[in-house]
Amino acid sequence: MSVLTVATWNINSVRLRHPNVARFAEEAAPDVLMLQEIKCQNDQFPEKALRQMGYEHLHICGQKGWHGVAIASRLPMEPLDGHGFCREGHARHAAAKIAGIEFHNFYVPAGGDIPDPEANDKFAHKLHFLDEMTAYFAGRKAQGEEKMLIAGDFNVAPHEHDVWSHKQLLKVVSHTPPETERMAKLLASYDFVDVARELIPEPEKLYSWWSYRNRDWRKSNRGRRLDHIWVSQPLKAAATAGGRDAIRFWEDYRDGEKPSDHVPVVVKLAV
DNA sequence: ATGGCCGCCCTAGGCGGA
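YS: structure for the whole thing
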């Protein structure tokens, strides 16, 4: 029995914030690190810095200036083909097989301001993206169940206590019924386990993102849980064996030099 | 009750984030 530590973090520019990643790599020591919003092309990715942190195996899916995801691993990794998942051609998905587990890293579209797919094409795109994910994993499930871990910035806070005010956010993109209903369908598509809520049930509040606009994010504490780590049933026991210490939202990373507006979420798998 | 920030890009204001 050993422990595989897995992290997801929307880094909001990896070129600007790889020093933060280095600190995190020391402190949390994830074996597998899934980054979103790297905001650079593949040849601009700070590969040398990541290798110095012990991440010899990199699968980078970048694009110019926006979006972009990467999987960094201390263990050997077999990159897997992307499946599109994005009608706009953005780099929002990376997959790889590591230690016999299939990892999927997603950056779901934010969806713009107006929660109406007729009036706002970005919101339509977000809903479409979530539907594509659901169709993909339903198709995969029909072929048999694998050890699968999907994670990333899903840009949806699914439950009442995943936001600071359920009532005030019901009409705010990230917590509207069309989004939270799709999150439930996506979860069901492969019978995934939402590890954070399995280990820390409601009504305890859990947030992974706090807006830059709050002067004092800790004091106002208007957060949302947008970042998720889900596992398939064959990994459920491994993900839950450690109890609530097996999941951690590293809130301290919302402070310090040039923080991302998201904090890393870490799961320890007993494999 | 409201508005509050940040990072990207053909370096500067506009766009996107959520």
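YS: worth flagging: Residues 12-13, 16, 37, 39, 64-66, 110-113, 122, 155, 172-174, 209, 211-215, 224, 226, 261 of chain A lie near DNA strand B (CB under 10 Å from a C1').
IM: good catch. Also The longest helix of chain A spans residues 121-142.
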